[in-house]
Every structure is written in structure tokens, then in C-alpha cells.
């Protein structure tokens, strides 16, 4: 059964959504797709986004992609990059904004889907922005590197004096297949969705993209391949080289992550809904350098 989304109201507010170049990452697909050959890799974007509110004109950024200076990352992360997941950053999120005519210093809000290194970017150009993250990661952030030398979370991922941690009690709205969400502007234009399973505090963004019923779901790391959303493939796991005899999955809670994947996948059957995950290399190949990138915008999906 297709999920039912809230109908637009009179003079319904919506969000213009634009993609940002924010780095390239090479993913070993056996970690993400069950049965994928150990040698299979996918060269993927790590897409960030700009969202502009149609009524107030307020602009916010969702995710910041890969930091240009990977030397600043925790040793545990640098080791993974060197051995398994090479990255390159021809243009980071802040540079993409400037190229499109928006100074990062003028951005009021940055929402991070989660604190894995390929989504935190570099917060330093966003000197006035309030950062918004899922509150469940707070303890891990405070105990991150360098406080805990083995942590893969950078304790300076966000400017703590300007960071809002979303508490579980704020996710009081349900929308479509998602039982826990926040109506961010209070007008049905943008929802932040509890995307449990991938990592503590993982959130997605679900935005209206027109006044008459189009939407875009920004799924971040809900799935690292669209075939997981369509049901063509299953979530994978590999032997953990650090701990022989144990398995390593891209999600901290595989079963919870699968439930969320199924919910997001159900949106792909709904007319007018565009589902876009951060590492969708097919979409990137079709759209890079085009009008979907800031200062252009991703066109609303036809109803």
C-alpha cells in the first residue's frame, strides 16, 4: 500500500532544493550490498543540499559532505580512507555555495544528517550558522576524538556553542510511513525524520517542492545504493578485519535500518515524490554540472 502524504494547504509553503558538490567517495559494495563481489566498488558523490523556504526566503544547508582536509579526521577514519574508502574533494560544500553566489557566512542553519566523516564537511566557513543534529549522538560526540583516541567521530565536527541537539521528545509528528518526525517550520514545508538504524542521531529531510503536492526525500545514508530501496538487493555485511569471526555492517542496528529502508522505499511508488540518497551515483552522473546544482534547483517531480 502506498503511504498517504498530507495534502497541500491554501497558499502552501514549500522548499526549493538544490544539490551541492561536496566530494567523491569510493565505496566497497560488499559492505553495503549482500552478495556483492569483494572487488566491486562504486565511485559515488557525497551530496549536500541547499533548501530555500518559499515564503520566508530562509535558506538552510543539509549536510556538508567530505572535508577537504582529511588530515584533521580521527586516525581510525584516516586508516579506513587509506585502506578501503578513498576520497577526493574537487569542490567542498562551502566552495559550491560561493560558486553559486551564497556566502557560507550568511547561512543561518546547517542540518547534519549524522556525524560520519563524509557528511560533516568543514564547519569553519559557516561562522554564524546554528548547527542542528540528532541528539542521540551527543554522548558519542562529546567522547569523540581526540578525547577517545580510537573514536571515529571527530569531537569538533560541529561548533558546540552554536549546536542544537534534537531530543527524542521533539519528534512528535508522523508523516507518511514515518512515525517520528519534526515539522521544522510548522507549516508542512519541511520535516526532519528520525532515520534510526544507520547511526545514533541519523536524520533525513522530507521537503515539499511545490505548492500542489510534489516532494523530495533526502535520505542521506539510509541506503548506499538505490537497489536497496527498490527491494532488488539486500543489506550486506562483511567480516570485520579488526575482530576475526565477527561481521561488520554499514548500519549500527541492521534490523532497525532495514525497517527504515523499507519505509523510504515505499515512497518510490508515490506519484510526485523524488527519493534521493547522498551517494546516488546514477543520479549524480545524470545531473552533475547541470541545473539541479546550486544556484539552480532540483525540479519538482511531476504528480
Automatic annotation (TrEMBL):
Signal peptide: none annotated. Belongs to the metallo-beta-lactamase superfamily. The lineage of its organism: Eukaryota, Fungi, Dikarya, Basidiomycota, Agaricomycotina. It comes from the Eukaryota. This is N-acyl homoserine lactonase AttM. Keywords: Hydrolase, Metal-binding, Zinc. One of its GO terms (molecular function) is metal ion binding. PANTHER family: 102 KBASES UNSTABLE REGION: FROM 1 TO 119443, QUORUM-QUENCHING LACTONASE YTNP-RELATED-RELATED. InterPro entries: MBL_superfamily_lactonases, Metallo-B-lactamas, RibonucZ/Hydroxyglut_hydro. Pfam families: Lactamase_B. Residues 57-159 form the Metallo-beta-lactamase domain. Its cofactor is Zn(2+).
Amino acid at each position: 500500500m502506498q503511504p498517504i502524504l498530507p495534502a497541500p494547504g491554501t497558499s502552501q509553503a514549500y522548499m526549493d532544493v538544490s544539490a551541492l558538490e561536496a566530494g567523491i567517495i569510493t565505496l566497497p559494495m560488499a559492505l553495503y550490498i549482500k552478495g556483492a563481489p569483494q572487488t566491486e566498488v562504486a565511485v559515488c558523490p557525497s551530496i549536500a543540499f541547499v533548501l530555500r523556504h518559499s515564503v520566508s526566503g530562509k535558506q538552510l544547508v543539509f549536510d556538508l559532505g567530505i572535508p577537504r582536509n582529511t588530515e584533521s579526521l580521527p586516525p581510525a577514519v584516516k586508516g579506513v580512507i587509506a585502506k578501503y574508502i578513498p576520497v577526493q574533494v574537487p569542490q567542498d560544500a562551502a566552495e559550491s555555495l560561493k560558486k553559486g553566489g551564497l556566502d557560507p557566512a550568511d547561512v543561518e542553519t546547517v542540518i547534519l544528517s549524522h556525524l560520519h566523516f563524509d557528511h560533516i564537511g568543514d564547519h569553519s566557513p559557516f561562522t554564524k550558522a546554528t548547527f542542528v543534529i540528532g541528539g542521540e549522538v551527543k554522548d558519542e560526540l562529546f567522547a569523540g576524538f581526540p578525547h577517545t583516541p580510537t573514536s571515529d567521530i571527530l569531537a569538533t565536527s560541529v561548533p558546540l556553542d552554536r549546536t542544537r541537539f534534537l531530543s527524542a521528545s521533539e519528534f512528535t509528528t508522523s508523516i507518511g510511513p514515518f512515525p517520528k518526525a519534526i515539522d521544522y517550520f510548522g507549516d508542512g514545508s519541511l520535516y526532519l525524520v528520525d532515520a534510526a538504524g544507520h547511526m545514533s542521531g541519523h536524520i533525513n529531510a522530507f521537503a515539499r517542492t511545490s505548492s500542489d503536492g510534489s516532494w523530495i526525500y533526502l535520505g542521506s545514508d539510509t541506503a548506499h545504493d538505490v537497489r536497496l530501496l527498490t527491494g532488488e538487493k539486500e543489506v550486506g555485511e562483511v567480516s570485520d578485519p579488526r575482530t576475526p569471526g565477527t561481521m561488520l555492517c554499514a548500519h549500527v542496528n541492521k534490523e532497525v535500518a532495514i525497517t527504515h529502508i523499507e519505509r523510504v522505499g515505499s515512497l518510490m511508488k508515490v506519484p510526485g515524490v523524488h527519493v534521493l540518497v547522498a551517494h546516488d551515483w546514477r543520479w549524480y552522473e545524470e545531473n552533475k554540472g547541470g541545473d539541479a546544482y546550486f544556484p539552480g534547483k532540483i525540479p519538482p517531480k511531476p504528480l
